[in-house]
Structure formats: C-alpha cells, structure tokens
Amino acid sequence: MPTFSFPSYSSTLFPLAFCFLALSAKPISAFSFQDFRKTSFDSEIALYGDARISNDGSSVTLTPPLASSFGLLAYNRGFRLLEATSFSTDFSFSISPDNGDGLALVVLPNDFALKLDSSAFGLSRKIRFLGVEFDTSMDENVGDPNGNHVGIDVGSLVSASVRNLSSANLLLNSGVKLRSWIDYNANSKRLEVWLGKLGSSRPNDPILSYPIDLSKMWKGEEVFVGISASSGNSSQTSSVYSWSFRLRSVPNWLHSQPVDPRRERGEPLRMQKSSACPLTVLAGVIFSTGCLALMAFVLLFVWTIFVARHTTVAAAATEEEYPKFPVDFRYQKIDVVDTKDVK
C-alpha cells in the first residue's frame, strides 16, 4: 500500500526545524511498489489497454506477445507541477528481444484516458504529454538514431533530446531487468535520466539531461504519472517489476548547480571561481553570530553556577575556621640590671 508522508513540526522544535529546512527539501507525497502482489493496490493503480498483473503479482505486463498491443500502468492520484515542485522516480523493467516501441515514463493531463489510442505508447496527437522513452525501434519519421536509445519527448514523439545507448554498453531489448532513475529539479529547471542494470547502484552521471520548465508547460494543471509500452508491429513484451515516486517542494532560494551543457557536447570544462549568493552569506553570518552568542551565554551560565558559587562557599568556610574577633594585648615593664661591676 503506498504511504504518504506530510511533515509536522512541534512548536518547541521550530528553531531547529528551521535550520534543517535550509538543508533539505520538504516531501509532499510519495508511493512505492516493490511488487504488485497486494490486492489493495487497485485503489492506487489503474491499468489501461492490454496491461495485466502477471506472475502472481510480482510484475505488471504492459504488452502481451501480440502485434499492435498497448498497455499503461498509471497512478490514480494526480498532482500539480508548480514552480517549486520537483519529483524523483525510479522503476525496474524488462523488454523482450524484439523491435517494438519499447517503454516510456509519461506525465499526462487529467483527461488522458479519453484520448488513448493505438499510437506509440498509446499517445495520440491530441494528448499533451511529457515522456522519457526507452525506445527499441528505429523510426526515421521521428528522427530515431537507432533501435536502442533513450529520448525525452515534450508533446511529440520527435524527441527533444536523445541518447544512443550503444556507447553506454546497455541494450534495452535484451530481456535483462534494468532500472531507471528520473529526476526533475524545479530550481535548475532540468530533467535528468539515469539507467543501469537491476541490482547496480545509480551511476554518477545521467545518460540524458534536458533543460525544461514543467511549471510553464502544465501551468498548475493536475497531471498524472504512468509507465506505458507498445509493441508496434512486433510481438515484443514489456514488464514492470517495481516503481516508486516522490514529489517534493523546494524553496526557491535553494538553488542547485545546473548541468553544464558543454558536458553534453563533450567540450572541456574550465574551472571558474564561484560567487556566493549575498543572501546565503548574510544567513551564514547571522547564524554564526547567533551560535557564538549562545556559546558565550552558556559559558557565562556555567561559570556563574560553578566557579562563583565555589568561591563564595570557600570564603564562608574560611570565616568559620578562622573567626574574626578583637584580641587584648597587655604590656609589662621589665628592669634590666648590669652585673659586670658587682663583686
């Protein structure tokens, strides 16, 4: 069953929570399916087209081994991609050794169910969508480089950005289970894609990166996320084994460094001196001053409790041991007789 988490802060811990706010994004909602065995997932997940639960719930088969098949696995609850809204998702999948359309992660408008058809990934021209395609066919009409590539589609199957996987030693339609990580950062306005074999850790560098402002694309409209596949003219099968998604809101003043586009073109990068944001510097100065003031107060308090008190007690003990009172001294006259001349 997907779990949703909403942050709650105690009023007594507000100062501490405020400090941590500057270091991390605030999660809004999330879901995670390590498999699809639970029957309660029906209230969270919808299956469209030829998509079916397979192997006693261990996977969802999006396309059976039939030509012109299409299947969509979609999350039932919508969300809004506002200016400060970012998301992260990862899923594991496999594609059989055929030259079908492959599989794609898609973000769709709220009326998408009325506009699905038998086109690639079920996406008709009437649907506005964002897609990250793992394409195993080469269609010259949409500019595919080969039958083994990843592309980012913005409202069209003609990819806005594409990466040939031949140089990455990855084959999409080998039947091997793969895992993809996809992040959208609302501050840098960048969509990034990672890909690796299931069981391996996420690579350091994304295989594909594309600058895009999703808040302008959707303009606050409710959208839905899903994983879609189509077989084209082949009998290709595509399956999903796990899927997680996290939506988060990041304060606008927390900027992350965007990927340098020269890296994507293979140009050498030159190190540049970084300039600190004035607001960040001011916040650091205020925070440091506050810490020093707090430390000074604590030291003064400890000194008052222990050192001053010890001095007072010691003085009192000295007075008790050596009491102060007046002392009378008496004087007596003494006669001295010289006996040298006495015979």
TrEMBL record:
Residue ranges annotated for the Legume lectin domain, each copy included: 30-257
UniProt cross-references to Gene3D superfamilies, sorted A to Z: 2.60.120.200
SUPFAM superfamilies: Concanavalin A-like lectins/glucanases
TM ranges: 279-303
Origin superkingdom: Eukaryota
Keywords recorded for this protein, A-Z: Lectin, Membrane, Signal, Transmembrane, Transmembrane helix
One Pfam family named in its UniProt record: Lectin_legB
Signal peptide: 1-30
InterPro entries per the UniProt record, alphabetical: ConA-like_dom_sf, Legume_lectin_dom, Leguminous_Lectin
MF (Gene Ontology): carbohydrate binding
Keyword Amino-acid biosynthesis attached: no
Family: Belongs to the leguminous lectin family.
PANTHER family cross-referenced by the UniProt entry: CONCANAVALIN A-LIKE LECTIN FAMILY PROTEIN (PTHR32401), L-TYPE LECTIN-DOMAIN CONTAINING RECEPTOR KINASE VIII.2-LIKE (PTHR32401:SF15)
Protein name per Swiss-Prot or TrEMBL: Legume lectin domain-containing protein
Native organism: Vitis rotundifolia (Muscadine grape)
